[in-house]
Amino acid sequence: MTTSKTKGYTILEATKKIESYCAYQDRCHKEVVSKLKEMGMIPIAIDTIIGQLIEDRFLNEERFAKSFARGKFNIKKWGKNRIVRELKQRNISKYNITTALKEIDPTAYMKALDELAQKRLLQITDTDIQKRRKKLADYLLYRGWESHLVYEKVQELVNKI
After folding, report:
1. In this structure, are residues 39 and 14 in contact, taking their beta carbons and an 8 Å threshold?
2. Nearest to residue 117, comparing CAs of 85, 86, 160?
3. pLDDT digits over 93-133, tens only?
4. What element of type H or E holds 158?
5. Which of 27, 28, 131, 140 could cysteine-pair with 126, CB 3.0–4.6 Å?
6. Is residue 143 within 8 Å of residue 116, measured between CB atoms?
């Protein structure tokens, strides 16, 4: 008896499975297509299922982009550059990326940058001021904060000490 790695799905079965996948958490088209390919679905079936998911509002790129931006900012404290980069990797349109970034409150954004920078600065043990500046800047840039904001914040905080 031979066993195959992937179970065969009808379009209806695959649609139901993907509906629950999308209901659990907002997904982008790329993630759903990838999941359908993993399930062994053929391109025409994938297109049919995607169309049905959009029609039934299980799949919505704008909603995905907004919740992604809110979540990554609120939970992981990512800056806008990192959020944009991650959304682009998921093939989200420029329009939806712009809309998603509007979900981030400017006051909360600056407050988060300040808190993140201060917390990180306390963790840097180097006594050399230049090394402290570089480590803090590298950390904030990696997290996706805009360079002009990072350098202003580094100047402000490292010179206090």
Report:
1. yes
2. 160
3. 999 999 999 999 999 999 999 999 999 999 988 888 899 99
4. helix 147-158
5. 131
6. yes
